[in-house]
Sequence to fold (174 residues):
Amino acid sequence: MTTEDPLGDGDVVLRPLTEENRPALEALRVATAQRAFVSSVTDSLAEAERYADANPLVFGLYDRETPVGFVMIADEVDDPDYIAHFLWKLLIDERFQRRGFGTAALDLVAAYFRSKGVPTMWTSAGEGEGSPIPFYERYGFVRDGVHEDDDGSREIMLRLDLARDASASSVLNS
Fold:
């Protein structure tokens, strides 16, 4: 598997960002209450360029041929300031939320890391109304500290033990 190949083989897959699919992915939007916690695709891509040493891998989440979300991960990193095996960005368009696509995205990312023998996957999120922390905790992530940025912002670190539940999801088997 290369980063040019889709991740997953069912109806819901992660496809690498291309110049062809970039406009459709940049058109995705989260609900208004979530905007304080979820960067736009355009801002996320600019962040990926700024932090190239994190080796970001960028994907569109597709339901068959329809883009429904955006995912950015850091797999192997070139700088100790970055966290390897990190779910950096997860955005599900407001029109497609509460349909299982967020869970499907997590299933696909977890399967990708498991296929590489990675024992733990990480993410982070801010707290407050509209925060994705409850979603991540329902999936199985546990809180594992607080990260404070230079600008004073704080995010909760969340850890998923990939060895704990290695059962394949229905998304990967569809």
In short: Confidence is low (pLDDT under 50) at residues 167-174. The two ends are 19 Å apart (CA to CA).
